[in-house]
Write a structure and sequence with these properties.
transport; five-stranded mixed beta sheet; metal ion binding; membrane; 398 residues; Calcineurin-like_PHP; Purple Acid Phosphatase, chain A, domain 2
Amino acid sequence: MLRSSSTTVKSLPLKKRLCFLLKLVCFVSSVFIFCEFLIYYVVIFQCRWPELKGEADMDKKENSAAVLKAIILADTHLLGEIKGHWLDKLRREWQMERSFQTALRLLQPDIVFILGDVFDEGKWSSPQAWADDVRRFQKMFKYPVSTELVVIVGNHDIGFHYEMTTYKVNRFEKVFNFTSGKLITRKGINFVVVNSVAMEGDGCAVCHTSETKLVALSHKLNCSQQKPNHSNKRCSDVEKLPASEPILLQHYPLYRKSDAECHGEDSAPPEEKNIPFKEKYDVLSQEASQKLMWWFHPRLILSGHTHSACEVLHAGKIPEISVPSFSWRNRNNPSFIMGSITPTDFSLQKCFLPYESRVFTLYCAAGALLVILILAHFQLLTPPFYFAQRLISKHKAV
């Protein structure tokens, strides 16, 4: 009887220690699960599809059939084998994968556009490295049958103009079914895909092929927008397309002097806004920009490349939205654009992803609380009231 009671007494501290250890594990696990999984649901759940004019008066079934719901993101920059540290790759790819998959699950878009620079080292990656990068991309950005993914080429995918080769362009086109001058028509809405790296204007093989396709597509679209009673011999044998004014999708922005006129919390930092842009490097040349405007008369232009947000008006009426980078390696506050689009109208809304600084703050706060709990458990922390009581008693004795 005595031996049994003594065994129980000895086992009490062990049970307390195991219970405390279990509580610590639960605490750490909860913080980790929230910061690495649940936080994406909490943040993206707050995003809402923008409403179009008159959309509130439309029937829900009619609205879902008429409106195309599109997500637009840019500059994922999947790290490669040369510059990418394994830990950096693991962290960034997990963040983007969780954000993308959560957005698909909660928002259920009809189509997703990625505006170039999918990879960071596509411009110089070997065939084996390219295959590995593609495999990782397909795992991160997998999508259901109900959603379509359209990927635009960027300078990091095939190189700047002086690095661009037919081999690199074909390699990208084979994987992503990308062709410059390609028309994508969904629900009567025309999207024109542009290889902006090939808009150099120097007559190179890739540039010439790209511009030829764009000119031919421009002719088709312009003929389709003419009134039925308008006679034009040049359009008599042209395939008729939906009469909707097109939306341009490209990597480089059209020409602008700098980001000085760009505003918003995800625009360029103040110290970078007034730095002049270099034509054919930061933005398209004035000549190439004017060509695209003449050819297509677009109602909206969507671009990436600068990693920062910007909205500008060309010719005083045509809006261009520069979409910021989707990667936390480039920004503390990545985001994507949500668009509700019809053949005659569109409405855009930005959806911000979790701020990385806030995630780190959560980890630091949780770490500090964890240290306090451990010290308190082992009675290594002097209670403040006890310390104050000692000071008061000493003061009275004096």
